């Protein structure tokens, strides 16, 4: 088995508007700033893992439009292997419209486009790639049946899986025991568990619910409050690093990617989660998705208490 991280997921082009405040229904907000960037939860996590020091291969689909080539080039520039990224004829690339306010809050809408072409039939020929990986990462921006196929193939070959069930959506309980790591925020945890996840006791209860159903390690991200970890070698809260947020887009993806890189290189879970927390903190101090994801040297500097430019 190699030390490769295989990320199977979405890739989008992001159209980002910085606004003074997020608009209400029917409201126009003037004096905005527009930027075109790159995102998609799968591609974000691949970039995050690569910048954190991982050897990363991305499996996904882009359109045969101008944005598809740009997205592949952007992944390559981040050090991600794109040999298994397909340019789908007649499909538009995935796209997201994002508004970000002055305190880093955001609203967004996503058009899946070519990401819908990441089907089980595309994933099954990736069996040898999955078999030789140290970790497979999945999210919920490709068809859920494709995620199930990837989980089943990984289980067959004994390759650990990290699922970030984001955005929230149904997930068949029979696949939970095949997950080495399940990462969700409070809203996603509530959708999965079926009860409100608000307050420390409910967060711990949700993690216990996941572990009781076979998940190896349950991780619930809590934004500025950090992340709750429930695993065989550590159980507790990893605090967030205090920063002034600019844009929270891709914070969760950065956490997941950095966590994957740290785990694959052999960091203990608690240390790996702290490493991931530092990466996510740096991410929110910058605009955009992949543009905001830090390099490993920056993560290590924050962990060591050294000054990081812009923080």
3D architecture notes:
There is one protein chain. With 311 residues, the protein is an alpha/beta fold. It has a single domain, classed as Ribokinase (UDP-N-acetylmuramoyl-L-alanine:D-glutamate ligase). 33% of the residues lie in helices and 24% in strands. The chain is built from 10 helices and 13 strands. The strands form 2 sheets. It has a 9-stranded mixed beta sheet, sandwiched between helices. A 4-stranded mixed beta sheet has the order 3-2-6-7. The model has no long low-confidence stretch (mean pLDDT 94).
Quick take:
The chain contains 10 helices and 13 strands. It has 311 residues and is α/β, with parallel strands linked by helices.
> Which of globular, elongated, flat, extended, rod-shaped describes the shape?
globular
What fraction, in percent, of the residue positions are helical?
A: 25-40%
* CATH class category: Alpha Beta
Provide the domain count: 1
- Hey, roughly how much beta strand do the residues contain? 15-25%
Euclidean distance between termini CA atoms: 38 Å
Widest sheet, order of strands: 5-4-1-8-9-10-11-12-13
Count, helices: 10
Give short descriptive properties of this protein:
311 residues, alpha/beta, UDP-N-acetylmuramoyl-L-alanine:D-glutamate ligase, 9-stranded mixed β-sheet, 4-stranded mixed β-sheet, 10 helices, 13 strands, 24% strand
Describe how the helices and strands are arranged.
Layout lengths: L3 E5 L3 E7 L14 E7 L1 H11 L3 E9 L2 H12 L2 E9 L5 E7 L5 E6 L8 H4 L3 H5 L3 E4 L5 H14 L3 E4 L16 E5 H8 L6 H13 L4 E5 L5 E4 L4 E4 L12 H14 L4 H15 L12 H8 L8
Parallel strand pairs: 1-4, 1-8, 2-6, 4-5, 8-9, 9-10, 10-11
Antiparallel strand pairs: 2-3, 6-7, 11-12, 12-13
Helix pairs in contact: 1-8, 6-7, 8-9, 9-10
